[in-house]
Amino acid sequence: MKKLLLCAWVLALSGCASVQYGDKDAEARLKQFSAVPGKTSLYVCRVSGFVASGVTSKVLVDGKDIGNLKPKTFVHAVIEPGEHAVQLVHDGINGSSGIHRIQTQPNEVAFVWAGVTGGGWGILTVDNFSSRQEALNCVNEAAYSVTATAK
Fold first, then answer.
1. Which terminus of the chain has fewer CB atoms gathered within 10 Å of its CB, N or C?
2. Candidates 3.40.50.300, 2.60.40.2890, 3.30.565.10, 3.10.180.10; correct CATH number of 2-146?
3. In which residue ranges of the chain is pLDDT below 50?
């Protein structure tokens, strides 16, 4: 019983950073998945899961903070077409994900998966979704998160 309480306490303390939610009207517009002429509309969506659920992760695209993720949240950025580096920096646990490189095109709506690998027992990282429908479902079921300076 003591081990169970200790585990619960550690999980509760592991997610100290907060997520700032975006405007609901902006969230509704983003969930229409409209392309931005000449640019790439990038979504990074964190799937739900119990392991590391208390961990908040800052999303960096080419080193720029685009928002924080907890389970069932997404961030969005409009970026130039081309090669980009996407990375998570975790609060409450040491380290970060590896760098996930993506190649984007003009007028593209692109998605990056964030979650725990290994069926929920691996590492908290970023990768590709297994299908476009899985990506759309993740964003549609998630809340929009923004950087602390945005809203």
1. N
2. 2.60.40.2890
3. 1-16
